[in-house]
Amino acid sequence: MTDEMDGGNGAIRRGLSDLVWSTVVPQLVGLAFCGVVALVAWPFGCLPDPRYIALMTALFAAKPAGELYREGPPRRLGAVAALFALMTVALLVAATADWAFPAGADRALGFLAGFLVGTPVGAAVLAWFYNRANVA
């Protein structure tokens, strides 16, 4: 069990793996939702944009990180580091995917893949900053 009681304010601290899994599962739900939307829209000749898919998965996956951010006093440095980690990983994966699969580059599939990989990394960075601040 990775949940621990914090001695200072009684809040429950969540481990990195719990937050990552609680981010990945809603992302998969968001992808399933976008898949259903694509299946409904496909006969009409309309497919969702990958940026729409990234936005929908972010909306589904943002709840655990938002709850962690609201548990304690604002951790602006942790939130900035989490966003920086998310964007860094997303750009690295997007550049690699666009280089490896140039046919998908014009549909922004590299951006989608990078965003899907970067979101749990950003959540883990936020949890690390939050837990480190609670221990100190």
- Low-pLDDT ranges: none
Residue-averaged pLDDT: 77
Residues in helix, % = over 70%
Portion of residues in beta strands equals under 5%
Oligomerization state? single chain
Provide a count of the helices: 4
Q: What's the total count of β strands?
A: 2
Structural class: mainly alpha
Spatial arrangement of strands, main beta sheet: 1-2
Query: Helix-strand pattern, N to C?
Result: EEHHHH
Rounded to an integer, what's the Rg over CA atoms? 17 Å
From the N-terminal CA to the C-terminal CA, the straight-line distance is 21 Å
Silhouette: globular
Short description:
The protein is built from four helices and two strands. It is mainly α and 136 residues long. A two-stranded antiparallel ribbon has the order 1-2.
